[in-house]
Design goal:
Strand 15 and strand 16 form a beta hairpin. Helices cover about 5% and strands about 55% of the residues. The protein has one domain. It has a 17-stranded mixed beta sheet that branches. The protein is mainly β and about 270 residues long. The protein contains three helices and 17 strands. The two termini are about 35 Å apart.
């Protein structure tokens, strides 16, 4: 999952109260030991090609030698036989609080085509600041200290935080606010909730899903707009089943293929 292929959301003032409520929510969606796997498909002409894979991992950890934490990790890559289309080798890692998932320290190494970036953020809770260190295309690291607004998350901790949203509070068309730290800046963001829908993945498995569309920011792969749609399981896990998006050279799709160590049974799967 690309840092520049990121979900960008624009916030509206009336949702501030709801945002604060979400920020205090505790994690009930996942636990240590969870592993979730995806195939990445690219649309090549009229054919969908399985050109890569993505995996998300959760491990129990200790941060700074004393704080109980989760180590969240995500890895995305294209298969070597399809690197000629657009080579991707991405790594995301973040240590987060086990209760409300507030980040401690974030790492990102992005290799996408000819673009190479390294990001390192340290979240200073006492001073409510973020120490950022960023290098692009093997250039020198640029260091800065930026304010850390309440209820702001990096990209990866945002993914897991969003899995804990109570969608029953919203109706189709509502915009759900979330704040994110991206490329050394903080943004006020939202996703558009689109309601419930049944969805089938590539191997024929069917799921009851919650559907939403985030806005995208211009980057190396995606163009801005609501060109991405996400379906997550309508159960306590909130596992993304399918993610579809338009890209500069066609379309891309991430499709769920399996999971281990889930906190809850996958009750959203339709077996009859």
């Amino acid at each position: 999952m690309s840092g520049k292929a990121i979900i960008i959301f624009l916030i509206l003032a009336p949702f501030v109260t709801k945002l604060k409520a979400q920020c205090t929510d505790t994690n009930i969606a996942f636990k240590s030991g969870e592993k979730v796997y995806y195939h990445a498909y690219y649309n090549w002409g009229f054919i969908w090609v399985n050109a890569g894979d993505v995996k998300f991992l959760v491990d129990k950890a200790t941060y700074d030698g004393q704080e109980p934490a989760y180590l969240l990790r995500a890895y995305g890559r294209t298969y070597s036989s399809y690197d000629f289309l657009f080579k991707v080798r991405d790594t995301f890692e973040v240590y987060v609080d086990t209760m409300n998932l507030k980040p401690y320290e974030f790492y990102r190494v992005t290799n996408e085509g000819s673009t190479h970036t390294h990001h390192h953020y340290i979240f200073d809770r006492e001073n409510k600041t973020i120490h950022t260190s960023i290098s692009k295309d093997n250039g020198p690291y640029k260091n800065s200290v930026i304010p850390w607004p309440d209820c702001s998350f990096d990209l990866l901790s945002m993914v897991y935080k969003a899995r804990n949203i109570d969608f029953d509070k919203y109706k189709p068309g509502d915009k759900i606010p979330i704040n994110m730290v991206l490329d050394g800046k903080t943004y006020n963001l939202y996703i558009r909730y689109k309601g419930r829908e049944k969805k089938k993945n590539r191997d024929g498995r069917k799921f009851n899903c919650l559907k939403f569309s985030p806005l995208l920011v211009d980057g190396t792969i995606f163009t801005s707009g609501e060109g991405m749609t996400v379906w997550v399981t309508d159960d306590k896990n909130r596992i993304p089943i399918i993610v579809e998006a338009k890209i500069l050279i066609g379309s891309v799709k991430a499709v769920f293929i399996g999971a281990e160590g889930l906190r809850h049974p996958i009750e959203a799967e339709i077996t009859k």
